[in-house]
Model the fold of this input.
Amino acid sequence: MFDIKDLYQEIIVDHNRNPRNFGIIDNADKIIEGFNPLCGDKLKLYLKTEGQNIADISFDGSGCAISVASASLMTDAMKGKSINDAELLFNSFHNLITNENGADEKSLGKLAVLAGVKDFPARVKCATLCWHTLHSAITGDKETVSTE
Amino acid sequence: MNKKSNIAEIQNQTEGFDVEKIREDFPILHQEVNGKPLVYLDNAATSQKPKSVIDSIEKYYRGYNSNIHRGVHTLSENATEAYESARIKVRDFIHANSTKEIVFVRGATEAINLVAQSFGRNTLGSEDEIIITELEHHANIVPWQLLSQQTGAKLKYVPINDNGELVESEYKKLLNEKTRIVAVGHISNALGTINPIENMINLAHEYGAKVLIDGAQATSHTSVDVKKLDCDFYVFSGHKLFGPTGIGVLYGKEDLLEKMPPYQGGGDMIKMVTMKETQYNELPHKFEAGTPNISGVIGLGAAIDYVNKIGLENIGNHEKQLLDYANQMASEITGLKFIGTAKNKTSILSFTLDGIHPHDVGTILNNEGIAIRTGHHCAMPVMEYFQIPATSRASFSFYNTHAEVDVLIEGINKCSKVFN
Done:
């Protein structure tokens, strides 16, 4: 049995209540939508890139606490990162919440608070929606990302 | 908020109805989930199965598993007898005239698709109109959208009001001589609203339209009389009626089914096949191509026996008590908003909590051993109307108790604590 507080840690509750980087970037050069048809979570990512760097990033949409906090934390972590670093972080995060052996939590910083999600398999997609959306925005292969 | 009173104990034992005794019939209820006793409140998604249903299926597979309608050997005769006697049970359960009107299908979804394709596609044209409602489950929307695309017939929706009730005056405006089919749910799966189907059927018939009633949410709560209703088609699923999954029923008036072409071709639906042509079997077998879900039908028969033994009136009374109690307790929770407040409704408590997404509510309750449904409930137009992405839905059955309502309420309060 898991303590529900392992999932809903204070940082997650806070980022859900006051999501960072929430809103539209007017001069975004990439806008991509993510959608989870199972629960109806919708998310839009706005990216402003400068060369190989993410100069600015924001999101809007609606979703559960896990998906909103995850997007808030992710956008915080991505600001100023190179696209290459962003992809590396994407892989580390994915390992964190799917791989029981865990990931390099140090490199993930605050993002590691979402580690509790791995004990709630039904919620993994909530936490990864924004990441898959970002991944698609970077690789540019789809206009809308679906978790299904 | 902890009103675990003696009243709850007394209320569980209204005359002739002992919920604790009934719970003994359901093996699945006696387990722990996440270290807590299971509180199963997702009955609108699927109901649990009494021992008698599980036993009937096991008895078939252990004792007389065999194909039906063709063998001359004893096992086949026994299987055929069990299969066809279940059809009689269904006929009596919904008060149909004849077993010819009872077609076994995979579920309510398949039954609606069957009617849309076999009846609708062969009778509708681009000038015709189909009426459904904003309250429908996707199973009673998408088959009609497909039919509309195939035939060019226009699809119209009866709107709902803030209580989640159909607006009857608008329904009357939508009806006209072009209306060929009206398809409406008996009871809403998302909100529990009981629709005024008797009146709707009568009005549709004034324009010569045929009416399909989606009874998926109804047969486990209320008695159904298709003759009295005078509906043209009535569909339901076995698994929501304490029977197995993968079995359901299409009721259709005999003269309509007689005129409709088969939905699928195959074995058992034929009288004679030559290389040139096929003579179809009689009703209801014309619509039952291939080896059917024999164990499912037998299990459904056992489920109907069980429901008859408990009595739909007793079931309805107990569920109403549970709903009233849950409503009263939930109304004291700050930030809780009821979605679906129809005057006439079944035991569904659909709600939202201020600032807490239903998905999070579902996870927190699950951690307390409570199973509810969260999401759009396959009724996205309903969510669209209320401008919400999802709700949390607790749906009660006759084996639920007042004490379980208390656990639910405590669980909801815990959600607020986690987020504050």
